[in-house]
Give the backbone structure.
Amino acid sequence: MRVPEIHGVIRRRVLVNFRVDPEVMQRSLPANMRPKLAHGTAIAGICLIRLEHVRPALLERIDVGLVSENAAHRVAVEWDEGGARHEGVFIVRRDSDSWLNQLVGGRLFPGEHSAADFQVTDDGTDLDFAMRSRDRQVEVRFAGTAASALPTGSCFTSVEDSSTFFREGSAGYSVTHDPTRLDGLELVTDGWHVAALEVSRVYSSWFADTARFPEGSVQFDHALVMRDLRHHWKALPDFTVSK
């Protein structure tokens, strides 16, 4: 039996976004999903999120809970079901420094997590982030500072344009040990506000893999940050993968 809903606070959520050639991106997706395009390009990235006071909905009034640093490599996607178009994110991998996330993820609550070590410095303006998975499969390095606008060259026209694109994709489906099934999870926030980050350093070993992304097929686009939002995660039905 799984816990249907988890509550908590998003202390910090950074969306590090890359634009990707749609045909190349499709190779990493289930056959019954396709990239959701923004101005003609696929959008993939990393969600770097610090969660605090995380606990089951039944314990919402108790001001205690789990604290964790987490990273999720993800792709904005669309799919057709029941004659309608749906959208969300396909999550290739989740990493966490929380032993509890690693233990119960995919068991008591959707989302299998791999163990990782994080080093984060964040003063509310400047952010320096480093993560390495303990299986040595994934490494992320990122540094940025608060900004008023997206960088020149972004495929999005404004912060508002990007915000709308991501807000509409609240349903996430993540890879599990079963290649025919994805875990489903929906993020619901009390409010929604994002701000731009000026990025001085960004690296992901997943996006740097030229066997997956041939040279020229992926480029960093922009990063956004959200802070101090109450939220809850809702379990969704599993997604069946078509071969």
